[in-house]
Each structure stands twice: as structure tokens, then as C-alpha cells.
Amino acid sequence: MNPRDTTHQAPGTLVQARVLFALLMREMTTRFGRSAAGYLWALIEPVAFIALLSLAFSQIAHSPPVGRSFALFYATGYIAFSFYNDIAALTGRSVQVNRPLLNYPAVSALDTVLARFVLQALTGLAVAAAIFAGILAIFADQVRLEPVALLGAFGLAALLGLGVGLVNTTLFALSKGWELAYGVISRPLFLVSAVFFSFASLPTAAREVLWWNPLIHLVGLMRAGFYPVYDDSHVSVLYVLALGLGLVTTGLVLMLACANRLAEQ
Question: How far is CA 209 from CA 181, 195, 199, 204, 257, in A?
């Protein structure tokens, strides 16, 4: 490598890092405010939802589909789903909420996406760690943590969420119709992603159809990270990885092709 190339690239890299950091701090202030209450709400909301699910289904069944704790079973499903969904939702609207910033030469549409992605991924990990630690401390259950499965679940969920967000950040900015259509299409996902049930408990015909839902694999991998007896034979890491990388590539191509239109909208 030519030494001169390094001297020319370093300032640009430093500027880009400063831009990302500034956008990240701006997102933190906008989303959570300057008090601890904003950060606390990020934890209270999922805790309340998991508690509601646990209370409701404990009145119907004597035990959860796997393990002994309703809270842990529904937490593994809900957190896997929401980790992906929150990243996809927030990154998908990056350009819409930050369009005035695109008038600055140093700020690109990709910068706004990455800032939101990093903030939500870190927030989601912190919330998940707090919830799981609390559940394991309060409710006794036979678990054996598998770090590889857990890291795989969070990593694939982040990749898939980023891919969907990258595609949508261009399409949402260019078409209100697609934004509405995507909302209708994605709304039922929560009901068909094995958050409430075990994939193995479904009829064969249903499993053959729902297998193509990548969130089924994320939930399965998350539960395999906690339950030593969980049947994760249906989980395909390669399928979700290929889909996530394909979506990221598609999103980057769309963003590059429509860069001028995104700034002018």
C-alpha cells in the first residue's frame, strides 16, 4: 500500500467516525431524552408485555411448551422477535426522519441507517440481558446457556433487521404506498413466528409453510440457547444468513442507485 494513500484516507475515516458518533448521540437524545426515564421505558415495555403473556397463558395451560417458566419461554420468543423487529422498524425510517441532515455533504443516507442500527442493537442487547437475568434469578427453571446459539440468534436477528431496514429506508422514502403495504404484510408476523408456541407442536403441513419464515429460525435458535432439551432441528443458520446478506446487498444497491432522489425528497 502506498503510504500516501493512508494519509489521504485517514482524515476521511476520522470525519466519517465523527459523523456517525454525532448521529448516534442525536438519536439517543431524540429517542430517550436527557433523563433516565426514557431508558427505563425501553425496559418496562417488554417486561410488561412478557408478564402479560405469561399471566394470560398460565391461566390456560398448566405448564409452558418447554421448561417450567412461562416467563422464560415467552421471553425467549418475544425478545428474538422484537430484537429483529425494532431494528428493522427504526432503520427503515432513517431517511424520513433525518432528511434535512442529508443536505450536509458529510452525512449520507447510510450514516443515518448505521447510527440507528447501532443504537437499537446496543439497546436491545442491554434490555435482553436485564430481562433474562431477572427471569433466571426469580423463576427456577432447568436451563443450560449455550453462548454460541445465543450469539447466533442475536447476530442473525441484527443482520436480518438491518437488511430489511436498508431496503425499506429507500422504498419508504420513495413510496408511501409501500410503507402502508409493508405495515399490513408485517403485522401478522408476530402471530406466526413461534413466539406463543413451539414449532415442533405444529402439524406437518403448517411446519412446511412456516419454515420459510426466517423469524421461526431466530426464535428456535434463541430457545436452543436456554433449553438443553429444545428441538432445534428445524433451525437453518445458513438460510437466515443468506437471506440477511441478500437483503443488505439489495438495500445498499437501492440506496446507491437512489442517493440523489433520497436527498431531494
Answer: 22, 16, 11, 9, 34
Domain count, the chain: 1
Instruction: Enter the pTM of the model.
Output: 0.89
For 107-132, the pLDDT digits (tens) are: 888 999 999 999 999 999 999 999 99
Distance CA 115, CA 94 (A): 9
Residue pair 247/88 in contact by the 8 Å Cβ criterion: no
The grid coordinates of residue 140 equal 427456577
CA 179 to chain CA mean position, Å: 18
**Structural domain containing residue 20:** 3-264
Those residues with Cβ within 8 angstroms of residue 180's Cβ, 6 or more apart along the chain or in another chain:
none
Count of other CB atoms within 10 angstroms of residue 124: 23
All three cell numbers of 172, joined, read 419508504
Q: How far apart are alpha carbons 161 and 172 in whole angstroms?
A: 15
Distances (CA, A) of 202 to 60, 65, 194, 254, 258: 18, 12, 10, 38, 43
Instruction: Read off the pLDDT of residues 211-232 as tens digits, 9 standing for 90 and up.
Output: 999 999 999 999 999 998 888 9
153's CB contacts (< 8 A; 6+ apart) are: 80, 218, 221, 222, 225
d(CA 218, CA 107): 33
